[in-house]
Amino acid sequence: MSVIAAAEPVVQPALAERLDGYVSRAQTAARAFRELRQEEVDRIVWAMVVAGLRGAVELAELAMEETGFGVFEDKVVKNYIATEFLYDYLKDKRSVGVIDEDPERGIEYVAEPIGVVLALTPITNPTSTVLFKAIVAAKTRNAIVFRPSARAARCAQRAVEILQKAGDEAGLPRDALQVIPDPTLDVSQYLFHHRGVDFIWTTGGPKAVAAANEAGKPCVSVGPGNAPVYIHRSADVRMAVVDMLISKTFDSSVICPAEQTCVIDDAIWDETVEELERMGARLLSGDDVERLAKLAFAPDGSVEMRALGQSCLNLGSLAGFEATADDKVLLAALPSDPAELAAHPLVREKLMPVLGLVRSPSVEHALEVCELVTEQGGLGHTSAVYATDDDVVRRFAERIRTGRILVNAPTAVGALGGVYNSMTPTFSLGCGTWGGSVTTDNVNYRNLLNVKTVSRRQAPAQWFRVPSNTYFNPGAIDSLRQLKAAQALLVTDPQAEGRGVADEVRAHLDGTGVHVFSEVGPEPGEAVIRRGVKVVDELRPELLIAVGGGSVIDAAKAMRLFHESPELSLDELTLPFLDARKRVANYPEIEHSVRLVAMPTTAGTGSEVSPAAVLTVGGRKATLVDYSLVPDMAVVEPRLTLSMPPTLTADSGVDALTHALEAAVSIFASPYTDAFCVQAVYQILPNLPRAFEHPDDLEARTAMSNAATIAGLAFSNAFVGVNHALAHAVGARFGIAHGRANAIFLPHVLRYNAALPSKFMPAPGYTAYVAPEKYAQIGWIIGLGGRTEAEQRERLFARVEQLLDDVRMPRSLEAAGVSRAEFESSLPELARAAFEDASIRTNPRIPLVRELAQLLEEGFHGR
Ligand SMILES: NC(=O)c1ccc[n+]([C@@H]2O[C@H](COP(=O)([O-])OP(=O)(O)OC[C@H]3O[C@@H](n4cnc5c(N)ncnc54)[C@H](O)[C@@H]3O)[C@@H](O)[C@H]2O)c1
Ligand SMILES: [Fe+2]
User: Fold this and answer.
1) DSSP code string of 226-237
2) Which residues, by Cβ under 5 Å, contact ligand 2, an ion?
3) What is the DSSP-derived secondary structure letter of residue 799?
4) pTM here?
5) Strands 97-102 and 633-636, bridge-based pairing
């Protein structure tokens, strides 16, 4: 029964049955092949190579006899390249099982055969291509069925016979090599569409390439060439001449990468042509060129078979001009004018010892001509440039669209690889998409494998980064004395300056000029940053001392960034990202020229140790995050927080609590950050209400200052989550202070993250959904009691809610003064802004937009 699909080419039933037989035997061989190990395969390859080498001369003779053209000696060389050079390349290559590994990336590459390969081979290299493809197929454990060119079927068959015999003895599966000699197109079409054929590997003319590509199967198809050569005035002319003569005479030029048109710089035209003639080339007269053109191509432009691969002598007598047996190559001077050249028949591929010559006035003209030549049937194939001027080589390589560009080397023998260079040896030269191929490779065993990537799970290493120095507890401000600087810029807000903060700092900085920039208000925007940068640019201080709340410290971070890297744009730096380590935004990697000291006057943001700076850009909160933003020194002086009114104490304290509770369940949480989270929560729960009720309680203030910085260290490494995303969105929209905005959502987000996620956050380091456990763990460690995990968690949540009430936090957006109408009209926009906020990237569950809307609703109504 025929196994081809309906509506595909049909042949007579008897022929179909016979063809099916070939394919089905090949399939059986392919199955047997799959069982072989590398050593067994290599033994087979060795045996085939040896047999091919021994048969090289006989096969060359047969090829000459059958095709009637080419050069016997060169056909022998081609057969050697297809065996000896190929073997040298293949002998230590792995093609079975694990062929490559990258332990650092946890990746292994495992090779599998394709199955049944249908191979078309050309008339130009009839036996060498068969030797080459058969050995490559054996190396890759593929069964191969040959469809040789109709005029070279016998020699191909003999090559297969020789290889099969040697292979048999070495364990080659039966019928792994077969030839189907029937010359008709129907047979090819039938096989092209055969379900049992897994892959088509074509080497042939444009028609064969097109037909194979149309079959709709995986294939590598390589077609004809038309190689231009450029000899620049900086070239070694004698070398170029010998190279071209070697190459152009090789097998009478019946080889697709052979030189076709040589573009010679004006300045060296005479010298080069003389040298060519001296070495045995014959320069034809204009009339003879016309005679040759008539002989080489039929009026319809097709190649005249009579002229294919003929010697100069034969070409002369066929065309009607004088040539001798000593002539190596016929030189045909072609027009320099590109339009005239394009119309000349001899601009095309000449599979005979005929080389076109074009005189060129400039590099630009030469490149244009070479490009034009490739466009006449040589795109994707091969080209060459002779030059010692590297710039010319570079320009040529950039401009010319060929898969191989040979520099100071012959194309025919050079492109096959291994003789003049280290390219992969091949008889199948990929021409890229320009020539209908999937590859520009020198096709070899890799192209005949299905390579599987076995990729092991990898969790990238984590980090715990802290600024170099943190001074804390009452009196920490004295640490400023150690700073040595001629000029410092104090960045602060007008209120702080009013409280005498600037004077206090000055008192601790003997011998340092202190200039004050006190324009930073809450939620700083671009304008104030720009003004600040201008001051830094003019003053050029060695030191920036930021004294204030998170707004001031964040502004100072941004001022330093844009002072040191004025080329950066806020727009680019706040680009969204999925994974901070892979993000597109480019932060500078430079040594700071200005040191940044951060002294918080609130106890909340942790900005004094964090890599984040929150700015207001275009009515939204935008977060800059990069470790280059981390201050060099943090001075956590609790006395500076004594002046905070209770609402600010509460707002900033709840911010710190939220940092700790979000970092604890983040996908980047680690034992390092966990320790900091627990300690921060432990300090905040009792001390925030104390500081709230008794603003002068220095002990409570100290605990809060430290807790805020400790929470800052945790979230600087583990980052925050969906609570901050929601707080940023509503904070910017309704002008609600950051801490209160956090407070409104905190109870809802805790329950949200403790529930079973509808969508998990993909994170290799987060191997189980541990957020609910982590909350319970915190409750238990800080001594809230509870027997079961659920109880422990509930107690923590209840305690958090109690704290929010104790410090009189609004418990809903409504209570914070947002009207229903206002809320409802902005809900979609808020959900979207929260979804785009970078904070959600480290939340343990991915919040769906509708879940964000739900959380926003909950936040609006409260309990
Ligand atoms: N960079 C980070 O890592 C990070 C983290 C969380 C929050 N933030 C950001 O920080 C900002 C909030 O910072 P914040 O909560 O410190 O408030 P803030 O800096 O915005 O200051 C709020 C107000 O309190 C006043 N103030 C500050 N200290 C005072 C004191 N000791 N006595 C009296 N008044 C004082 C300020 O003058 C200001 O008017 C927000 O923009 C938030 O997004 C940044
Ligand atoms: Fe915050």
Assistant:
1) -EEEEE-TTS-H
2) 655
3) H
4) 0.82
5) unpaired
